[in-house]
Write a structure and sequence with these properties.
This protein is an alpha+beta fold and 206 residues long. It has four helices and 13 strands. Strands 1, 2, 3, 4, 5, 6, 7, 8, 9, 10, 11, 12 and 13 form a 13-stranded mixed β-sheet that branches. It starts with 18 loop residues before the first helix and ends with a strand.
Length: 206
């Protein structure tokens, strides 16, 4: 098994050529399942493509400007946030995903949000994975499953050999394989906020 083993996820995307059209076609096959509530009251809707979980491999490397972290500043947490600087490939992928999501959620708002809401309200409440810090280039936010978690993020060296979990992220370039896991939901109806949890399942050193 190696990082390039496409039996694990969808095939690699190659830019340029027809990659943008392939992304759009892939994303148009997505569906969101009915909302489920966990024991702690968290709400989520699983994202599927043709009945399967939606995984994607980015062909181009991205740079992590910072170390992983979380809002509680808890270094022992089994899931951490990490951001990367956007490139054209990432921007196109999430642009297509966000466009699809706002249209789909608007069409299915009564089922997903408990009330039919206008498209403008959906666009206002939707939280993209792309972040635009004031006066700085855009960043994309992902999540890492840390050592000790149920499905730890797998790490690979530049030759495609599996290695120990990477500890030094800041300022380095990586190729990513991600799982767009589910839509999270906070609040209800007009006051709801929602977006996607995007997990890094595999990372390749560059």
């Amino acid at each position: 098994m190696s990082f390039s083993d496409n039996t694990l996820v969808s095939p690699c995307v190659h830019f340029p050529s027809t990659a943008h059209l392939r992304i759009r076609k892939s994303i148009m096959a997505l569906t969101l399942q009915n909302i489920v509530v966990n024991a702690r009251g968290g709400k989520a809707s699983i994202l599927l493509r043709d009945g399967e979980r939606f995984a994607h491999t980015f062909d181009l490397a991205v740079q992590a400007p910072f170390q992983p972290g979380n809002h509680d500043k808890d270094d022992t947490a089994l899931r951490q946030n990490i951001v990367f600087r956007c490139n054209d490939e990432v921007d196109k992928f999430f642009g297509e995903l966000d466009t699809w999501a706002t249209a789909y959620i608007s069409e299915h708002s009564e089922r997903l949000l408990g009330k039919e809401l206008p498209a403008g309200q959906i666009e206002t409440n939707y939280i993209s994975s792309i972040k635009q810090p004031e006066g700085r280039p855009p960043l994309v936010k992902f999540k890492l499953n840390m050592p000790g978690s149920n499905k730890q993020t797998r790490c690979w060296d530049a030759e495609g050999n599996e290695i120990d979990f990477i500890r030094d992220w800041a300022g380095r370039d990586f190729k990513l394989r991600v799982l767009v896991s589910h839509m999270w939901l906070m609040g209800s109806s007009e006051k709801s906020e929602f977006g996607f949890v995007v997990l890094i399942t595999d990372v390749l050193e560059k």
